[in-house]
Design goal:
Elements: E1 5-6, E2 13-14, H1 17-27, H2 58-68, H3 73-86
Helix pairs in contact: 2-3
Length: 97
């Protein structure tokens, strides 16, 4: 199957990378170049993608990605503890009791 290039904004397919770049320039679609650390994207991507630093829950996404790729149980437990203590939850409007 040939490689298809997809526009990060509209998700349309292009046959070559050159045609993708022409499409992005013509359409004015916005790309993010944040290069979000060692676990993030190292290429132009859609703003707000799961590992983009502009995503509201980037910390949670990076911790879960590291958790999936870790085999040692002690490291997994440490990641879960850091996730529980460091990543803020979603505020609730209802009383839990």
């Amino acid at each position: 199957m040939p490689k298809e290039w997809r526009c990060p904004e509209c998700r349309s397919r292009r046959a070559t990378f050159k045609s993708l770049l022409a499409h992005v320039q013509e359409s004015g679609h916005k790309l993010c170049y944040c290069s979000a650390g060692p676990h993030g994207y190292h290429y132009p991507h859609r703003p707000g993608s799961p590992c983009c630093i502009h995503h509201p829950k980037v910390d949670a996404n990076l911790i879960w990605r590291a958790y999936r790729h870790t085999e040692n149980e002690e490291d997994r437990l440490e990641l879960l503890v850091s996730f529980a203590w460091d990543v803020p939850g979603t505020p609730s409007t209802e009383c839990p009791f």
